[in-house]
Amino acid sequence: MKLLGIHHAAIICSDYARSKHFYSNVLKLNVINEHFRADRNSYKLDLAMPDGSQIELFSFDGSPARPSYPEAQGLRHLAFKVADVQIAKTYLESCDVNVEDIRVDEITGKKFTFFADPDNLPLELYGV
């Protein structure tokens, strides 16, 4: 077996309209498909990343909040590659997104920073 890359990351949100706006308008991901599943009273939104990978955004009634601080076991955060971390940080801040100070990875020497989606899911910008 040889893994070829990441196909998608799935995210469950608490407020579908707010999260759809954040991922499609603020982060500017292209909508591939949007489905309402009446039997589950649930939305599924497929969003395209420029490299061909995807984010699946789900809504489920009554889903529990994600434990984060202190950090729980499981997926820690989702990182996005960007050409310039400072430009991306400035853009997000212009959209009223709180972004942490830029740091430098002591191993790679690359710049990175963290911000959160509307449900406080930790997201990272990582310079390439």
Automatic annotation (TrEMBL):
Record domain VOC: where: 5-128
InterPro entries on file: Fosfomycin_Res_Enzymes, Glyas_Bleomycin-R_OHBP_Dase, Glyas_Fos-R_dOase_dom, VOC_core, YwkD-like_dom
Keyword field: Metal-binding
Pfam family of the protein (one): Glyoxalase
UniProt key word Metal-binding: yes
NCBIfam families, per the entry: PRK11478.1 (NF008551)
Protein name per Swiss-Prot or TrEMBL: VOC family protein
Organism (species): Pseudoalteromonas fuliginea
